[in-house]
Structure formats: C-alpha cells, structure tokens
Amino acid sequence: MLQSNIRSFKKSVLKGFFLFVFVILPVFYLGRKSFQLFKAYLEERNLKKEILILTAENEAMRKRIEEYRKGKTMEAKARDDLGMIKKGERIYIIKK
Q: Which residues contact 59 (CB under 8 A, 6 or more apart)?
C-alpha cells in the first residue's frame, strides 16, 4: 500500500514537472516576448509620429530662414514692431 502511494506520488510529481517544463514555462516565455514586441511596436509608432512632426517643424524653420535671408520679413518686422522707416520716407501719424 505504501509502495503504491509513493509510486503514484512520484508519477504525479513527474507529470507536474513535465507540465511545467513543456507547457507553463513556454507559455510564460512567449507571453513575455509578445508583450515586449507589442511595447516595441507602440514605441516605433510614437517615434514615427514624432519624426513626422519634427520634419514638418524643420521645413517651416527652413522657410523662415530663407525669408529672413531674402530680407523681406526682416524689413516688415522692423517697420511693424519697431516703427522704423527707410531713408527719404515720411511717416504720418493718424490720431483717433
């Protein structure tokens, strides 16, 4: 009787070990790898969005730089913000 109980206990322990090694352990491993893959996918998507935004900002800055190099924007800024005038021009102030 004791021998059969020991054998059945050994069999159940052996079955539990094989279940753990061949079923549970791979499921946890694959689940962990799947989660890491999903995180990497989300990070890639966010970085692509950021690249698009930064590319658009970079293009806008290049256009602004080109406008300043041409001098048109700088002249308009000087006239509007600082009230500057060109030599020979007259300024008229209209009071309300």
A: none
The structure's pTM equals 0.52
How far apart are alpha carbons 87 and 53 in whole angstroms?
A: 43
Q: Which amino acid is located at 7 in the chain? A: R
- Give the SS3 label for residue 92: coil
Q: Could you give the angle at the alpha carbon of 13 between the alpha carbons of 11 and 16, nearest 5°?
A: 110
Which whole-number Å values give the CA distances from 33 to 11, 20, 81, in the listed order?
32, 18, 59
For 33-68, how does the pLDDT look when each residue is reduced to its tens digit (9 = 90+)?
999 999 999 999 999 999 999 999 999 999 988 888
In the chain, the amino acid numbered 24 is: I
Non-local CB neighbours of 68 within 8 Å, separated by 6+ positions: 74
